[in-house]
Amino acid sequence: MKEFKLALLQMKIAGGKKKENLLRAEKMITESAKNGADICLLPEAMNLGWTHPSALNDADTIPDGDTFTTLADSAIKNKLFICSGLVEKENNKIYNTAVLISPEGELLLRHRKINELEIGHGYYAQGDRLNIWECELGTIGLMICSDAFAEERVLSQALGYLGADVILSPSSWALPPDYDNKSKPCGKIWYDHYHPVAKKFAVWIAGVSNVGRIIAGPWQGYHCIGNSLVLDSGGNIKLEGPFGVNAESILYTTIKPVIRPARGTGWISYWQQKS
Fold first, then answer.
1. What pLDDT shows up at residue 259?
2. In the chain, which stretches have pLDDT less than 70?
3. What are phi and psi of 191, to 5 degrees?
4. How high is the pLDDT of residue 271?
């Protein structure tokens, strides 16, 4: 693993407006590259918006759909890695998916969300696996938003056991428009789930959320509020993005090499501990 610069694109997403969202993503990726980013992290369901009904008709295939080809072209043009959420179609199923794309425009990782909220079940099929990718920047793992909230954090912990140096999490944080962030800081919700895993496995965790109003679907009227968060390999807050429906921004942080002891107890160590 080596030190690298991560850009979190806390972008506005317009529900169901794929072309508008892709154009905005391209512009923000280009700006990030000009500021020296090595990886751009974009939100969950970036092309259509989380739980927007357009998922059922306008989801994209990988690797030849509009969203993937646009992101791959941007990766090549700007010579950086891109991690983004997108609504994916394969055969007769729709998935809430995240991809990691190389600077050469190649698909390195594909993760399909496993711990989807109940209101998303009418749109997205469930993923069935976790993966990591080893590259010159380190070992990268992917999850999506509420995957981090699985019981006992089994999904993010599994990525730790697999050896991830960095976990990237495209997200879409939505709250009622009257939510009081001062009395109950939204960032603490993220922190409470990220911190134990980051500290236990000495792994960086970065979650980026979009901003904007949800205009259709089961949470119509809710606000996506950003408040993106990065924890370092000691479980400390490295970066916290602004909160608010209009808080679009590009956030930068430096990911530093992780030095950690070997992980995993194995059966022999387990029984030695018990005895």
1. 75
2. 260-275
3. -60, -45
4. 43
Among 80, 97, 100, residue whose Cα is nearest residue 88: 97
Residue 243: strand pairing partners: 226
Instruction: Give the pairing of strands 229-231 and 237-240.
Output: antiparallel
**Beta pairing partners, 108:** none
- pLDDT (0 to 100) of residue 63: 97
Q: Are 80 and 33 in contact (CB under 8 A)?
A: yes
Phi, psi of 75 (to 5 degrees): -60, -45
For residue range 140-194, list pLDDT tens digits in order: 999 999 999 999 999 999 999 999 999 999 999 999 999 999 999 999 999 999 9
**The token pair that represents 21 in the structure block:** 């969202």
**Residue 266 to residues 94, 107, 272: CA-CA distances in angstroms?**
38, 33, 10
If one counts every other C-beta atom within 10 angstroms of the C-beta of residue 83, the result is: 26
pLDDT of residue 262: 60
Give the full edge-to-edge strand order of the sheet including 174-175.
174-175, 223-225, 211-213
Angstrom distance (rounded) from CA 168 to CA 206: 5
End-to-end CA distance of the chain: 37
| CATH code linked to domain 4-274 | 3.60.110.10
Calpha distance 213→223 (Å, rounded): 5
Tokens of 233: 């390999």
Q: Alpha helices of 100-139 — where are they, by DSSP H? A: none
> Mind giving me the DSSP string for 186-213?
HHHHHHHHHHHHHHHHT-EEEEEE-EEE
The domain limits of the chain are 4-274
Ramachandran assignment for 131, one of left (phi > 0), alpha (psi -120 to 50 degrees), beta (any other)? beta
